[in-house]
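Amino acid chain
________________
===
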Amino acid sequence: MAGYGQFTGGDTQGDTDSIRFRPTNQQILLPALILAAILASQSLLLLAPHGTGLLTTLRQILIPVLAAVLVLTVALNLWVGVTLTPSAILVHSFRRRVIPLSDIRGIDIKTTLGTRTVMITEVSGRRTRLQAPVAGGLAPDRRFEEKFHTIGQWWLAHRG
């Protein structure tokens, strides 16, 4: 199940302690490359009128900045995702959120502008969009449906 979700503990037949879903590799790298291309093109536009020392400036300023942006973008995307535990769904975003399985009323797919995401509805009415799995547009995930069903089955099996 490589690339599908990270299973930790137990075996992968149903006796697992947790399952972790992260964005796919393409979903991690694509935003980083787009952001780097935008920064590079804007920097070149700003530096082009000056002409002299362009290569020196590129080496000294632009390349380290682009490298830092790529590393930060990839690091942030590796952090986001969701972890299924026997008692809760842990939503990893800029801030971590714990949703007890007993507080969940439903799990469904929400489509916005062609991008499909998993949406959790709590008993209180609060809705949470998960950062992973996601599918659509330039960020396809061929196993999105399977991951969605795994989340739903996990909830049904552990909600108590």
